[in-house]
Design a protein that fits this description.
CATH topology of the largest domain: Immunoglobulin-like
Bound molecules: copper (II) ion
Shape: globular
Largest sheet: 6 strands, mixed
Number of domains: 3
Radius of gyration: 23 Å
Structural class: mainly beta
CATH superfamily of the largest domain: Cupredoxins -  blue copper proteins
Number of strands: 23
CATH architecture of the largest domain: Sandwich
Distance between the termini: 67 Å
Amino acid sequence: MTKFTNPGLMPTNRRNILRGGALAGAAAFAAAIPAGANTTPRRLPVPNLRAPAPHVVKVQAEAIAAATPADLSGMERVRQELVAPPFAPVHEQVATGAPKIVEIEMITEERLMVVDEDTGASIWALTYNGSVPGPLIIVHEGDYVELTLRNPVESMMEHNIDFHASTGALGGGALTHIYPGEETVLRWKATKAGCFTYHCAPGGAMIPYHVCHGMNGAIMVLPRDGLKDGAGNPLRYDSIAYMGEQDYYLPRDENGDFIQYATAGEDYADSLDAMRRLTPTHSVFNGAVGAITGENALRFNVGETVLMVHNSCNMDSRPHLIGGHGDYVWETSFDVAPLISMETWFVRGGSAMAAMYTFEQPGVYAYVNHNLIIASLLGATAHFIVDGPWDNALMEQVVAPHAMET
Ligand code: CU
């Protein structure tokens, strides 16, 4: 059966996925060619119908070649060890000293992940450093991010990275295409303060394919003097809860069961069919149903202030903390006054944002997408367990439930 994954451009089916991937701008499946397993696969000689015109690419290459080298002499270099979500790397809330060059490393790892243990739904996730979302990066405005990006030789696909926080060359996407067995280094200046998404963008239909297989994450660019309320008073947090909301479009077989695939990329044509319906089968925090619930719930104490960093690379979301609030909410930039005392806030698909809250009562809080269908049926629920003394002045069960007299 022939399916048109690029309407008007070319037919594809699962058997000619090699060609479809290349035409979509990815050359992803060149690695699947058995000849020369240790040879770095190169882009197949097929025109990329979605790529910029050659003269545009040439103009950009000439501009880059003619540019004056940036003088970064004297800048201190520091290394940031990235950690898996929902945690944040060691960082300063207020920058000390002058802007720095912050060195980070990321590996493009393709790995089979269980999305929902109850149904057996799984995905060959495309990741940065093995997690969905990719790790949270934290720098200060004026710092440089210097990323070493590596694509293991055993990968099936080409990857790159587009930082929404950066300026130029498709967010760095045009300068970071790496095939299996390749690495690259990109340095860019963080000129805007706020939370920003980053994601893989190999080209054409491979862009949503990679993003909807988990290949996205967030960077937080703090003001050098830290976060502030609308009156200029400093705001500090005790901890960070970093959550990526991931929509998956997992193909089903004729019985309605989720299809298992043997390798990354094998689901390409089926996935595009599922994605085209714009109806996710799952929308989860941190890669899988229950990744931040039950035993995986995050723990806090009464009086503790948490900064909830929420990344949503593809779909809009409206987070709500059931039983709590957003005391201060930065939906956009850290350079504008935060929204205050919010009940539900907004994550524009294709962005990351932050909300700050100080816990006042113990108990279980549910952090959900308050599209409650998505929260309950598709998986977008996280749990925070808070310890500490109960405050009857805030809430009290005056009369316990009991049968009414009739
Ligand atoms: Cu990718």
